[in-house]
Amino acid sequence: MFKKVVVPLIAAILLAVTFSGTALAAEGDHPELLKARGEVIAVDPAAGKFRIEKSDGTVLTFFVNEESAFRGLESLDEMQVGWKAGVAAREGEDGKLWAVMVIAGDTSDVNNVRGKVIDVNIPAGKFSIETPDGAEMRFFVDEKTRYGGQISSLEELEVGMGTGVAYTEHSEGKLITVGLIAGSAPDLIKANGEVTAVDATRGKFEIVTEDGTRKRFFVDEKTRYQGQLSNLEDMQVGWQAGVAVKEGEDGTLTVVLVIAGIRPETVRAQGTIVGVDTAAGKFRLEKEDGSVLPFFVDEKTNYQGQVEGIRDLEEGMRAGVGGYENQDGQLIARVVAAGDPQNERPEPIKAQGIIKTVSPGAGKFQLEKSDGSILTVFVDSQTGYRGQVDSFNDLEKGMRAGFAGYINEDGVIIARLVPAGHPQADRPDVERRGGERPTPEADSLLDDRTKTPSS
User: Which of 26, 169, 318, 332 is exposed most, by the fewest CB atoms within 10 A?
Assistant: First the structure.
């Protein structure tokens, strides 16, 4: 389990410590904050702002003030274009994104490795690990080394812990630790449910799970909090909670991690996109009743349909959005399915006439209308048949026929329904048992609504 946590974290240690729930979690995870990571593409210290481009192409502009905290750099003056950055920000009343925390740095020369701690020498400021392939590596720490996981300093590192190390190699061959994430992975019990009792004085709380089971948990100084609480005093009855706990020898369940808060209200809406602000990571959706809803996106937003990111959204697109309303009243989009209405709703077409040719190998036939124009019509596995035919193979030259279908993006007519048969006077002298089915002439479906397209 520890490997699953370490491997993605050490890809960019400065960002990982923030967004894996260590640095921010230490101050309480704030779901109301917009969190983003990406590459710095512009820095303007004089204006107190910078821009990052996320992996999906979204560009966000962040502003800093005296309340902004920095890690990996002392101030905005040190930030450089090309650095990787992670930001937690809050939208102000002016609509600007004000950075609460900025973690940034140049990770181009940072290497990473994982393994198990086999030696710790605190006075010498060094430790050794054994990698999965059996190699032994020795690392040094300094005042710039950052820690995460279950440790906050070298003094807390223990032999046997699993670890991920981000490091740089100095000219003399020394491996200097940039970031160190380490910890032990006890067998944890996981549970989730609704909080039914909280006793902060005694350091305990209870939840009831979906199957009605009541469970009591205890917290200690090592318990980590995420969600809408930073300590047990913040927890409230009625909240939803998820816990990871370890069981003591006496059966006591001690919480390693608890994530709790009010379950956000789900929001679903359909309509037309009437505004897109890629830089701010938001768009506006006009519903059928004329109301307009502003939605925000983040790195967790999933895109479907004809779009892969907010950069693909355009005014006039039809869209369906699923998300939630956060504590600040903002609508956060979790799923955005959008596309061009013309592509979603192909042009319908209906016509009737006499079949001139049938091409079984090409899956098409030609229909001559009463005005002499000829339409080339294709069929596929979804085409249905009526009248005196049950399949494409039953179509014959000279039959009266009609079709209902659509014109695709390539201008090709695709039939969805083909009623066809011989008129009474022209029908071959082959008697069909079970009575005759109606000919296309009696089929009310085939009111001619076409103009001859080029074929």
Answer: 169
pLDDT at 328: 72
d(C-alpha 359, C-alpha 379), whole Å: 11
Farthest-apart Cα atoms in the chain, separation: 107
What is the SS3 assignment for 142?
coil
Report the 10 Å Cβ neighbour count for 428: 8
Radius of gyration of the chain (CA): 33
pLDDT digits (tens, 9 = 90+) for 244-258: 998 888 889 999 999
- Environment class of residue 15 by beta-carbon count within 10 Å: exposed (0-12), middle (13-18) or buried (19+)? buried
Q: How far from the centroid of its chain's Cα atoms is residue 315's Cα?
A: 22
Helices marked H in 373-454: none
Q: What is the pLDDT of residue 25?
A: 36
Residue 266, pLDDT score: 80
CATH superfamily entry for domain 189-261: Copper binding periplasmic protein CusF (2.40.50.320)
Residue count (the chain):
455
Name the one residue in this structure whose structure tokens are 């260590």.
Answer: 22
Q: Would you state the pLDDT for residue 14? A: 43
Helix or strand holding residue 207 (H, E):
strand 204-208
Task: Fold for 265-343, please state it.
Answer: OB fold (Dihydrolipoamide Acetyltransferase, E2P) (2.40.50)
pTM over 0.90: no
Yes or no: say if 418 and 364 are a contact pair by the CB < 8 Å rule: no
- Are the C-beta atoms of 52 and 86 separated by less than 8 Å? no
DSSP annotation of 393 reads G
Position 74: which residue type? E
Annotate 334-381 with three-state secondary structure.
Answer: EEEEEECHHHHCCEEEEEEEEEEEEECCCCEEEEECCCCCEEEEECCC
- CA separation (Å) from 286 to 95, 269, 271, 325, 349? 20, 9, 5, 17, 30
Q: Which CATH superfamily is domain 347-442 in?
A: Copper binding periplasmic protein CusF (2.40.50.320)
Low-confidence ranges of the chain (pLDDT < 50): 1-29, 425, 429-446, 451-455
Kindly report the number of other CB atoms within 10 A of residue 439's CB atom.
19
Q: Where are the domains of the chain?
A: 189-261, 265-343, 347-442
β partners of residue 51: 42, 61
Q: How far apart are CA 365 and CA 231, in angstroms?
A: 73
